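**User:** My hope is that you can spare some time for a protein that puzzles me. As I understand it, each token names a local backbone shape. I would be glad if you read both lines and explained how they fit together. The protein I mean follows directly.
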Amino acid sequence: MNDEGAFEHRKEVIEMSVYVKFETPKEISDKAYSLAEMARDGGKIKKGTNEVTKVVERGNAAIVIMATDVEPPEILAHMPALCDERNVPYVYVPSKTELGAAIGLDKPTASIAIMDVGKGKALCDEIAQAVKTLKG
């Protein structure tokens, strides 16, 4: 790895460490995108970090999905601690663009809170259990 590559790697690790508390396997991320699509079609979703923060604070979120490619990363820095405090499960996905698309937006979104999972209750529970195991 050249010096520039080493710098980029360190930069990525530093940025991810701001709010990403565990690495999410691709299988779980894919399930999270599917859950977002299910909730879009038959549930209730809040999008964007401000709305998500309010829903979590009020105790109305079933699960929170956050993108890991958010710039600046401080936008979501408070979210894992808030979710832990309110006992709301959360999961990471790699792309804010894909997360936005999963809920029917033409624009990226840093995070979503699913308030009503619709037909995705079993999938939501499965993701929450997998994340609990990842967090240790």
Observations:
- The radius of gyration is 15 Å.
- Residues 3-135 form a domain with the 60s Ribosomal Protein L30; Chain: A; fold (CATH 3.30.1330.30).
- The CA atoms of residues 65 and 91 lie 5 Å apart.
